[in-house]
């Protein structure tokens, strides 16, 4: 592959600045490849490498040249920030121009997933794509049944091009009603089933806003809602939840859109839940990231900035909407129709949060994959537009699924035993939504993905994560635990203090800020050892029994025993931790001590690792070797495994060919 | 005085108790000299509340018809409500509680009446003696001596009878230094860093005044802690501005000219009413259920509590860094050396010394650096966040210290032998207790009160195995390294275990904790079983071999 134009693929004597401590910088060489930006440190003993996928780059900023060189700031969608200083202004400009082009591909074929090759054969790849099967999922929910059926009305995307071909609708909703209803809904996104609760026949359906304007009606749409209500014989009304702020919804009426008039629909209860639109959310995230980027902020700077960003307020609004719906379904036994404007952002967030609260299956690893496929991928969440995979309108970009992922994390914090997966799993899912290493999240709809033949040309993320599931398990999860059984009831409404800043995500690469010892990793190691002990116990028990029986000697026992002795000697977690003091006082460095650079030298001298907590994912561990630079540079204390293993940033070693100058 | 005089109505029936996250309980309310007791009459559910009067921070009463309601706000931050039928009964109960919770004489406090129901295995009053500390020290270095100069508390009323000072400084010199330091708190040894022989000393401010008084003995004393040609750091816990202002009142700081081998660093840690107000605001924010997300964050910010945590931790990290990384000795002081100084010296030890992260070591640290060092617990912990009476000396200095320890514990969850519960227990006992440990303001007062003879030590109770097991951290694995916490705002969190303890249900978190303990316990059991089986197998095999050989 070629890099556009006559750009330089390699620049020497580049300095990579430490984000927290500006006086620490690593000298090295910067490479641009077709897929990655790579920084390799000169320091011969480590030669740490930092790899950044082009698709992760969200912005590149060239700052004013100083005496030391020309600063280049690369901000990534996975919240990594890379601050480089390039000696020559001209080189910096070249790198800048190249990256601008590389970070904004115009064709899907330029994306990494089309060149990424994990060396799986065709069968394995196909199996990977079959891991998540939505028909199976609807069957699991108990559908089709007496009230619900699969409809082929959209088989050629003829009714709605952003919907899947297979949609589930009430049995009484004829094709005529569906098509009629679709004509009365924005982008023809008619009400379709998202979640069904077989215990009480309640459903969560989703759609876009009705084209009601100030007075328009549509008989078929009214029939459609009635069909949904009647599919739940236990209840005599249906909730219609508009997830927009009332003011926004009213403004839409002037454009011929709007919301359901309770008078026109029989037995609905209409409810607004004010979640802000994608533009507000984009700005909110931007503000919060600015706070995260502050150099040594005071507590007030941080808290004030966090509040001012409004981020946690928005997270809470989404949670509150999900909680409302889950309550309606589980406690009141009332079905809910959810929509926003187009029904692909807020609606997806809210439906999936509600499903997660209601159904323990979605809190398993497999179930979570299914949930994302169901509520996001299949229902036409515009991944390409929202996450800027291809160069496009910056106003379309918004952290919609990031917010959903954060909601899951907030729930994990409140219900530590309820989820089969851990924080690392969420972080890796977020990473890959942006990485374009796997085909799952390409394009804006199922239709586009089919046209591109994604499943034949790329690999599925779910198979990759599933293969490495041991790394993503929550050690506190037990399928027979009460928290994993039924509906989760978060403490609601008033409990603002339950929503916390997620530094594991937004300051993900500042490892020095995170707890230096991970309880999760510790417990995972304990569980692994427990399993070994159980096995050994069985072996020993058998040996003992046979020995006592025949009273004969068996040499094997001895050798086996010696092996096992070694194993047992290994501590569950000889967690050693490396860390170094921070800049607790800027005065300190000017103190005329014996060795002026003492602080700096000692800082890097103290490197310890957690050998036994290594990732079992071959890809991950391979990357953590080559990529340890990512971690070490972004934090002051390399403690591999102490936090999360380095992210699989989507590089495979064969693919990464350094381009010649 | 008889308590009976204060108890006009000792018993009321049909009282309803409301607590957050519990169903209301109806029962009989009894007042004793030291407790408020509510016992439900139902046999099936013997719900009981025992509340020490000294735990009550403030009470409010209101009436709807003849039904009175008393809202009791406790020093441990809990708020409970009692519905009492009958206006007279309610008024009587309220006034009794008010009187009993604000007894002005220490000797009327519960510790003087408490009779332990457990067997004392080890007398906590004798568990942590300075002589033992010195014995440990003298096995490593002979540069220090124990001085009995303060035997009768005659030189420094807030110091313990014995202190550790440089060997080369005699008692005569100490007397002169004491004259030169605020409240006579001359520099003494706080911590010896085995790794490199560097030390941390603490004292109060020097009395330089506006005309720059100096004291040769003082200079000699602190220079005695330096190796030849080496320098040290003086960490002043006040901002330069505050330290300069102190000169006008006769205080001050070490001038470079007189202490050329020392470099002074000013850190600004707040004190007294600023901290108290911060606590009041924080608790108010935590209890306010009405506001929205934004108001919660701004109230949290406005309380400044986490700012104090960050400042204190930063200063402690700095002290530890000077000792461990710069290889320099350190002297820490603020004004009196009884508050922020102790926060810094004790936290620095937790960072540097693995021993302080064990239960026993932490207890010893609290005894050395807080009780014996003369932190005025009685003044500081008389009231908590709900009190209306604003007393000048109240300040949550110790609570802030515990909060900082919790922050480090959260960042190094496997490096402490004790869990969060241990810290919460200490917080509770510092404010209200059946034990005498936290009574009095210094060793002098404690000895006058004859606490050792008349009250039980908290440590006697805590250090019994069955009690200790409640406070052990299941994740603990001894870690001999220095642990450097992060002081970035993103790394510091609100201590929910204390501040949200009564405002949120902890059911799911408790379940997670139990799950964790179960996992670890099961692992230990399996290990024991496997080892036993191995031994058994080995025995059988040797038997077999012997038989064969025979």
From TrEMBL, chain A:
SUPFAM superfamilies: (Phosphotyrosine protein) phosphatases II, PH domain-like. Residues 523-550 form a coiled coil. Keywords: Coiled coil, Cytoplasm, Hydrolase, Lipid metabolism. Its main location: cytoplasm. The active site is at 340 (phosphocysteine intermediate). Residues 128-506 form the Myotubularin phosphatase domain. It comes from the Eukaryota. Residues 555-569 have a biased composition (Basic and acidic residues). It is found in: Cytoplasm; Endomembrane system. One of its GO terms (cellular component) is endomembrane system. CDD domains: PTP-MTMR7. One of its GO terms (biological process) is phosphatidylinositol dephosphorylation. This is Myotubularin related protein 7. The gene is MTMR7.
From TrEMBL, chain B:
Residues 509-550 form a coiled coil. One of its GO terms (cellular component) is cytosol. It is a peripheral membrane protein. PROSITE patterns: PPASE_MYOTUBULARIN (PS51339). It is found in: Cell projection, Ruffle membrane; Cytoplasm, Perinuclear region; Endoplasmic reticulum. It holds the Pfam family PH-GRAM_MTMR6-like. One of its GO terms (biological process) is negative regulation of autophagy. Transmembrane segments: none annotated. GO terms for molecular function: protein phosphatase binding. InterPro entries: Myotubularin, Myotubularin-like_Pase_dom, PH-GRAM_MTMR6-9, PH-like_dom_sf, Prot-tyrosine_phosphatase-like. Residues 124-499 form the Myotubularin phosphatase domain. Its main location: membrane. SUPFAM superfamilies: (Phosphotyrosine protein) phosphatases II, PH domain-like. Belongs to the protein-tyrosine phosphatase family. Non-receptor class myotubularin subfamily. This is Myotubularin-related protein 9.
């Amino acid at each position: 592959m070629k890099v556009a134009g006559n750009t330089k693929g390699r620049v020497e004597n580049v300095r990579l600045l430490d984000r927290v401590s500006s006086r620490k910088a690593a000298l090295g060489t910067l490479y641009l490849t077709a897929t990655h930006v790579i920084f390799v440190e000169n320091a011969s003993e480590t030669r740490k490498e930092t790899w950044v996928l082009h698709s992760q780059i969200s912005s590149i900023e060239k700052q004013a040249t100083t005496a030391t060189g020309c600063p280049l700031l690369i901000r990534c969608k996975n919240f990594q920030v890379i601050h480089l200083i390039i000696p020559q202004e001209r080189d910096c400009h070249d790198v800048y121009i190249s990256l601008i082009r590389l970070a904004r591909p115009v064709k899907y074929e330029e994306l990494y997933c089309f060149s990424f090759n994990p060396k799986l054969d065709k069968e394995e790849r196909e199996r990977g794509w079959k891991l998540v099967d939505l028909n199976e999922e609807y069957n699991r929910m108990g559908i089709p049944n007496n009230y619900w059926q699969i409809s082929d009305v959209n088989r050629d995307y003829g009714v709605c091009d952003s919907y899947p071909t297979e949609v589930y609708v009430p049995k009484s909703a004829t094709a005529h009603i569906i098509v009629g209803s679709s004509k009365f809904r924005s982008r023809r996104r008619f009400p379709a089933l998202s979640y069904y609760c077989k215990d009480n026949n309640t459903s969560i359906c989703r759609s876009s806003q009705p084209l009601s304007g100030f007075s328009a009606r549509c008989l078929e749409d009214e029939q459609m809602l009635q069909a949904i209500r009647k599919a739940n014989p236990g209840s005599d009304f249906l909730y219609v939840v508009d997830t927009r702020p009332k003011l926004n919804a009213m403004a839409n009426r002037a454009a011929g859109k709007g919301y359901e008039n309770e008078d026109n629909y029989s037995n609905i209860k209409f409810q607004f839940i004010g979640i802000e639109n994608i533009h507000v959310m984009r700005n909110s995230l931007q503000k919060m990231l600015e706070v995260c980027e502050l150099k040594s902020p005071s507590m007030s700077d941080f808290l004030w900035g966090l509040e001012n960003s409004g981020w946690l307020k928005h997270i809470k609004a989404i949670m509150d909407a999900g909680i409302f719906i889950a309550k309606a379904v589980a406690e009141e036994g009332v079905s809910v129709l959810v929509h926003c404007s187009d029904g692909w952002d807020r609606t997806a967030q809210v439906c999936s949060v509600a499903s997660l609260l209601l159904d323990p299956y979605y809190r398993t690893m497999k179930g979570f994959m299914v949930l994302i496929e169901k509520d996001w991928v299949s229902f036409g969440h515009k991944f390409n537009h929202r996450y800027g995979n291809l160069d496009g309108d910056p106003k379309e970009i918004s952290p919609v699924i990031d917010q959903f992922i954060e909601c899951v994390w907030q729930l994990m914090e409140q219900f530590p035993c309820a989820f089969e997966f851990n924080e690392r799993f969420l972080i890796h899912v977020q990473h890959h939504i942006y990485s374009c290493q796997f085909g799952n999240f390409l394009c804006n709809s199922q239709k586009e993905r089919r046209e591109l033949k994604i499943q034949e040309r790329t690999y599925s993320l779910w198979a990759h994560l599933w293969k490495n599931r041991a790394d993503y398990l929550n050690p506190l999860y037990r399928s027979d635990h009460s928290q994993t059984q039924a509906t989760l009831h978060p403490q609601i409404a008033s409990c603002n203090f339950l929503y916390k800043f997620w530094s594991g995500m937004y300051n993900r690469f500042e490892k020095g800020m995170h707890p230096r010892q991970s309880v999760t990793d510790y417990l995972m190691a304990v569980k692994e050892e427990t399993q070994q002990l159980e096995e050994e116990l069985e072996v020993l028990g058998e040996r003992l029994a046979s020995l006592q029986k025949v009273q004969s000697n068996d040499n094997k026992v001895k050798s086996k025993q010696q092996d096992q002795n070694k194993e047992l000697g290994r501590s569950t977690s000889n967690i050693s931790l490396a860390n170094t003091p921070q800049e607790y006082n800027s005065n300190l460095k000017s103190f005329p001590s014996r060795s002026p650079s003492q602080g700096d030298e000692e800082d890097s001298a103290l490197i310890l690792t957690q050998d036994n907590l290594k990732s079992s994912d071959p890809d991950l561990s391979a990357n953590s070797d080559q990529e340890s630079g990512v971690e070490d540079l972004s934090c002051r204390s390399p403690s591999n495994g102490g936090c999360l293993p380095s992210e699989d940033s989507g590089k495979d070693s064969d693919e990464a060919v350094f381009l010649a100058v | 005085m008889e308590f009976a005089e204060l108890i006009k109505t000792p018993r009321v029936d049909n009282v309803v108790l409301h607590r957050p996250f519990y169903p209301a309980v109806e029962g009989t309310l009894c007042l004793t000299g030291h407790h408020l007791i509510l016992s439900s009459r139902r046999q099936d559910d013997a719900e009981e509340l025992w509340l020490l009067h000294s735990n009550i921070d403030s009470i409010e009463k209101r009436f709807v018809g003849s039904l009175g309601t008393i809202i009791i706000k406790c020093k441990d931050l809990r708020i409970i409500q009692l519905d009492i039928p009958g206006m007279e009964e309610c008024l009587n109960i309220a006034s009794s509680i008010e009187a009993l919770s604000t007894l002005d004489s220490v000797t009327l406090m519960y510790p003087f009446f408490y009779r332990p129901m457990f067997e004392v295995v080890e007398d906590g009053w004798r568990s942590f003696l300075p002589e033992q500390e010195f014995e440990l020290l003298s096995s490593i270095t002979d540069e220090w001596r124990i001085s009995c100069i303060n035997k009768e508390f005659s030189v420094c009323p807030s110091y313990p009878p014995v202190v550790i000072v440089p060997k080369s400084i005699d008692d005569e010199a100490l007397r002169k230094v004491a004259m030169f330091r605020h409240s006579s708190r001359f520099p003494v040894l706080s911590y010896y860093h085995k790794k490199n022989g560097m030390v941390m000393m603490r004292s109060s401010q020097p009395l330089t005044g506006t005309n720059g008084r100096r004291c040769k003995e003082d200079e000699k004393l602190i220079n005695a802690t330096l190796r030849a040609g080496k320098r040290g750091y003086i960490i002043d816990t006040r901002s330069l501005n505050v330290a300069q202002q102190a000169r006008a009142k006769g205080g001050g700081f070490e001038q470079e000219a007189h202490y050329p081998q020392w470099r002074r660093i000013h850190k600004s840690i707040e004190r007294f009413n600023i901290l108290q107000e911060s606590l009041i605001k924080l608790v108010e924010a935590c209890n306010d259920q009405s506001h929205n997300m934004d108001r919660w964050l701004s109230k949290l910010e406005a309380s400044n509590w986490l700012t104090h945590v960050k400042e204190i931790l930063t200063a402690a990290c700095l002290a530890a860094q000077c000792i461990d990384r710069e290889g320099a000795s350190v002297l820490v002081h603020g004004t009196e050396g009884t508050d922020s100084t102790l926060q810094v010296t004790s936290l620095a030890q937790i960072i540097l010394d693995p021993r302080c992260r064990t239960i026993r070591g932490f207890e010893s640290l609290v005894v050395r650096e807080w009780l014996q060092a003369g932190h005025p617990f009685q003044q500081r912990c008389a009231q908590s966040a709900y009190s209306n009476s604003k007393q000048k000396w109240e300040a949550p200095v110790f609570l802030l210290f515990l909060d900082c320890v919790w922050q480090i514990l959260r960042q190094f969850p496997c490096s402490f032998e004790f869990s969060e519960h241990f810290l919460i227990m200490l917080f509770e006992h510092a404010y209200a207790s059946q034990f005498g440990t936290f009574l009095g303001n210094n060793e002098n007062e404690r000895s006058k009160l004859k606490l050792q003879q008349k009250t039980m030590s908290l440590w006697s109770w805590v250090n019994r195995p069955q009690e200790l097991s409640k406070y052990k951290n299941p994740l603990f694995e001894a870690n001999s390294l220095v642990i450097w916490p992060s002081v970035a705002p993103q790394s510091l969190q609100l201590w929910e275990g204390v501040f949200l303890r009564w405002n949120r249900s902890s059911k799911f978190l408790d379940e997670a904790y139990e799950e964790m303990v179960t996992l670890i316990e099961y692992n230990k059991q399996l290990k024991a079983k496997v080892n036993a089986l191995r031994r058994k197998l080995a025995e059988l095999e040797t038997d077999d071999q012997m038989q064969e050989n025979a």
